[in-house]
């Protein structure tokens, strides 16, 4: 099975409510600081934010630093595709972003990794080590005061359990996985999430593999419109979470290889 990476720039119009045009392009390292802020502001006031980062209002920069690390860590993987949406008139200013990973040990996953080229893979390996050293030392010297480390660890355990239950099964192990989709609060409702998701759905369609993800209650509505199906609920939720969202899957119309 062959894989294809997203083109350098693909343009499309926004929803019918506006006349703006948007482009989808690969993310750049210079985008990361703004993307980290979007990660924080998009989840502001939610139950999950209160659970994971209860002191974010007092230490927003600490959480931004954590988001910068997480975004770059994903970008440094040879399995990763990270794209941003921008106005066509302002292509250097990202408004939303998505990060996707080609999961599995099959030939399709290996083909995608090889498509990055030896030189790029070496650079990514060096980048991963640099990130590990710099941020590990940084978090030891300057801890993230915004977050609850025990809750972060607990949440990670929940996610691992859910992933094993719903994705570590035949027909889903080899897939594209949507790691994160975030739209700036000021630009939500303009179709940017749909445009970004079309990138990974097209990659999956060409390969004949599914797309899996963990959906928030808000995200669930978008994913259902795109044809995703609910696999099941989260094994655990933070106190005060009233439900919605869960683990979802999208299968290409031509079936899964």
From TrEMBL:
<dbReference type="InterPro" id="IPR016181">
    <property type="entry name" value="Acyl_CoA_acyltransferase"/>
</dbReference>
<dbReference type="Pfam" id="PF13508">
    <property type="entry name" value="Acetyltransf_7"/>
</dbReference>
<dbReference type="InterPro" id="IPR000182">
    <property type="entry name" value="GNAT_dom"/>
</dbReference>
<dbReference type="GO" id="GO:0016747">
    <property type="term" value="F:acyltransferase activity, transferring groups other than amino-acyl groups"/>
</dbReference>
<protein>
    <recommendedName>
        <fullName>N-acetyltransferase domain-containing protein</fullName>
    </recommendedName>
</protein>
<feature type="domain" description="N-acetyltransferase">
    <location>
        <begin position="122"/>
        <end position="253"/>
    </location>
</feature>
<dbReference type="InterPro" id="IPR052523">
    <property type="entry name" value="Trichothecene_AcTrans"/>
</dbReference>
